[in-house]
Write a structure and sequence with these properties.
The strands form 7 sheets. The protein has a 4-stranded antiparallel sheet with strand order 3-2-1-28, with no helix packed on it. A 4-stranded antiparallel sheet has the order 4-5-6-7, with no helix packed on it. Helices cover 0% and strands 53% of the residues. Strand 16 and strand 17 (181-185) form a beta hairpin. It has a domain at 1-10 and 171-301: Methylamine Dehydrogenase, Chain H (7 Propeller). The radius of gyration is 18 Å and the shape is globular. With 301 residues, it is mainly β. It is built from no helices and 28 strands.
Length: 301
Amino acid sequence: MNLNTSSSKNHFLINDGEKNPTKIIKVLDQFNNFSTINQLEGHTEDINCLILYKKNYLASGSSDKTVKFLDISTYTCIKTLEGHECSVKCLTELKNGNLASGSSDDKIKIWDENFKCIFTLTEHTFWITCLLTLHNGWLVSGSQDSIIKVWNSDDSFACIHTLQEHTYVVTDVIQVTNYDVVSIGSDAQGTIIVWGFNQGFKNIKKWESGSNGYTLRSLSNDMLASTHTDGNIRLWNMLNYEFVTILKGHTGWVYELIQLNDESFASSSDEIILWEKTNDSKIYSEKQRIKAERCFNLLAI
């Protein structure tokens, strides 16, 4: 999920492996040295994904095969969705307010606003690793089968495009400002591909980023960030997709990255690092480190 947040957001939501193996969501106060002010429990196994849903709710997917919804004003669970046969790996809110969930049961489920499963999509042959809602409402899915599929979000949810340029797991897919769709793979070269949205999802650029890829996020000033298993973050110019710089600081797999405001972003691994712009608008430097252990998810609310 490509999540941009404003500087008015003062709480971080994280789930990390300190004491409990990623089953607990911690609420951190950004303006009080990121101290823990709440801990949210309920899932019985690892939490794999967190998103904001309808602005007022937190949706979490877990290896316990469920999706839980929490009211962020009270941090109370209002609904638990059951139906997947294996871990829930990814979530996205659709343009019409429905929710899509992807699982290691190789299926995508569509849930309506009454939390009823109305579609189950079964065309992938391996785990669903990432989901994206396009600006026109279509759904995009990436999988361990190395394939990306584009689904029409009308009453049929028919697969309208199948993209097969990756050779290994597709770990993330985002839509950037000019509507192009960008994907990254976990192959050793970290292959990144740009798909032309207005060109029938034609492969318009493909390159090797240098290390197994994990997430993609768009930043301000037309910058694209990719995270990698080598502990580094690579920045790319979204106007021409040329390499800009590499940010070194993490020592392990970089799991997540979110923009905080026009001047800074946060990344998570075995700890959270806050980065801010230098005088050069395209270069970032480390500002602060926050203790965390195996921080898989990072969200600002």
